[in-house]
Amino acid sequence: METRHLGGSDFKVPVLSLGTATFGGGRGFQEWGDTEAKGATRLVDLCLEAGLNLFDSADVYSDGKAEEILGAAIKGRRNKVLISTKSTFRSGPGPDDVGSSRKHLIAACEGSLRRLGIETIDLYQLHGFDAMTPIEEALGALDELVRAGKIRYIGCSNFSGWHLMKSLAISEKRGFARYIAHQAYYSLIGREYEWELMPLALDQKVGAVVWSPLGMGRLGGKVRRNQALPSVSRLNDPGTVKIAPPAEDEQVYRVVDALDEIAQETGRSVAQVAINWVLQRPSVSTVIIGARDETQLKQNLAATGWKLTPAQIAKLDAASAKERIYPYWHQAQFKERNPFPTS
Asked: What is the pLDDT of residue 240?
């Protein structure tokens, strides 16, 4: 499998990585999947055979059970895998069991290390921005963990442009470890990432770690006009729908129509075409795929090793185009000086 540098670092990652939100089936994640240790071990086996060696988790996935299952699945082969995980969201009932304070981050990191059964996390990310904690405190704690050898690289997730840019400026000013990755939502039905975060990523050399390239399953090929949702789908869970990236039905159908055409042209599945489109976008270092079972994993792994043509990309771009909000619609009128990123 192709590898790419993660941001401006010399840390190389596969273009696909496996998300573990489907591991455990615990509170809040029942509709995502319920893969246990034996099944997870098999998925890891298949990933390694395909050249995918980066596995992404978070302390809140099934209340830590996903990390435990991942740890069991990689036991005895730590030198063959790369591990990323996240913290910031509430992980307990106490007042300090949430956020990016020094107290919470250090405790959360140590908890993840224990559940994963490893000594060092390759990529540790803040799961969201914490406006209640000074950025200096959060970055200082992460820097301390890096210096202690508990983390190799740091990243963030779901930040706005100013959150990320201010954090990078503080790291430069204070000599702290610097974010090399931004785990962000990006798909054919969610292209807002392009408006500000993509230009920032290219300018500041922050690699995109893309989550939900299929728009929370809407681009998997089973959501179509005049057709009921599949019986097994995260979209059947009210809790998931509440936090899912927003998308109007007509927008989804329009994109799926275009995906159908290109799937027929290429002999690929709708999901494979949708993932491949994301893989060819500027700033993208790796795309996180999920899998309930071996069949779904093998299908998603086949999204690599080939490329859409410029004409096919243009067709998908047109079908997924969305009216921009201010100031991005205004900036788009000045293409001579604000061109769309191309690398």
From this structure: 67
Give the Cα separation of 324 and 298 in Å (integer).
Answer: 36
Contacts of 162 (CB under 8 A, 6+ apart): none
Inter-CA distances, 304 with 183, 260, 277, Å: 20, 18, 10
Give 287's strand partners.
16, 210
Which amino acid belongs to residue 269? S
Cα atoms in the 13 Å half-sphere on the side-chain side of 237: 17
Give the Cα separation of 196 and 328 in Å (integer).
8
Mean pLDDT per block of 10 residues along the chain (343 residues) reads: 97 98 72 76 97 98 95 97 97 95 98 98 98 98 98 98 98 98 98 97 98 95 81 63 84 96 97 98 97 93 97 97 94 91 81
Report how far residue 300's alpha carbon sits from residue 221's, in angstroms, rounded to the nearest whole number.
12
State residue 117's pLDDT score: 98
Q: Where exactly are the structural domains of the chain?
A: 3-331
The H-assigned helical ranges of 51-116 are: 65-74, 102-116
Instruction: Compute φ and ψ for 7, nearest 5 degrees.
Output: 65, -140
Could you tell me where the beta strands, DSSP code E, fall in the chain?
Answer: 3-5, 12-14, 16-19, 54-56, 82-87, 121-126, 151-157, 179-185, 207-211, 284-289
pLDDT recorded at residue 280? 97
pLDDT at 228 (0 to 100):
74
Assess whether 61 carries a catalytic annotation. yes
Catalytic residue among 61, 153, 185, 193: 61
CB contact at 8 A, 300 and 269: no
Do 153 and 123 touch, CB atoms closer than 8 A?
yes
Nearest to 313 by CA among 280, 339, 283: 280
DSSP characters over 13-66: EESEEEE-TTBS--TT-TTT--B-HHHHHHHHHHHHHHT--EEE--TTGGGGHH
**Rounded to 5, what percent of the chain is helix, strand, coil?**
40, 15, 40
Q: Which fold has domain 3-331?
A: TIM Barrel (3.20.20)
Q: Cβ neighbours of residue 319 under 8 Å, at least 6 residues apart?
A: 188, 254, 255, 257, 258
